[in-house]
Structures are given as structure tokens and as C-alpha cells.
Specification:
By secondary structure, the protein is an all-alpha fold. It is built from three helices and no strands.
Amino acid sequence: MRLDFLREMFTLPVSRMKKLTSKITLLASVLAVACMFTTPILRAQGDDAAAKAKAEKKAENKAKRDADNLKKYDKNGNGKLDPDEEAAMKADQEKAKAEKKAKQEKKGD
């Protein structure tokens, strides 16, 4: 007698069980669809942050390089590169480019 009472208390009728499984299935489906849409959005945000950091680092490197060039080639100290100073800088760049090319050709042989 006592066992029958417990059995009735803990067993769900078939119709109620179907409703429960339907709700669980629906909930799982909604969560799966939500994950499908949020994952690409989160990845895109991460990619944007990485691209922004890369662009900032590139800008910092360019500013440092420009400052170094100004310090190296600004002979009269006016804070600007005059045409003769620019010509000296370009000549040095062409010389470095030629040396690099010669080194690569020598390495390739």
C-alpha cells in the first residue's frame, strides 16, 4: 500500500511526460540556434580588436621610424627634411635596397 502511494507520487503520466520532453527539446533547439548566431558575432568582434591592435602597432612603428629618420637626416635641425636631406635619405634607402637584393641573389646561387 505504501509503495503504491510512492510510485504514484514519483511517476509522471505519459501525456505530462510528452509535454515535458517537448519543452526540453524546444529549449535545447532555441539554445542551439542562439549559439549558431552568437558565435560568428563574437569571433568577428575578436577579429576587429586584433586588427585594431595591429593597426595601432603599425602606426607606432611608422611614427618611430619617421622620428628616427628625422633625427638622422635633419642636418640643420629645423624639424623638417629639406630637399637635400630628403635626397640623402632616398640615396641611403636605394643603397640598402641594392645591398639587400645583392645579398638575396648571392644566397640564391
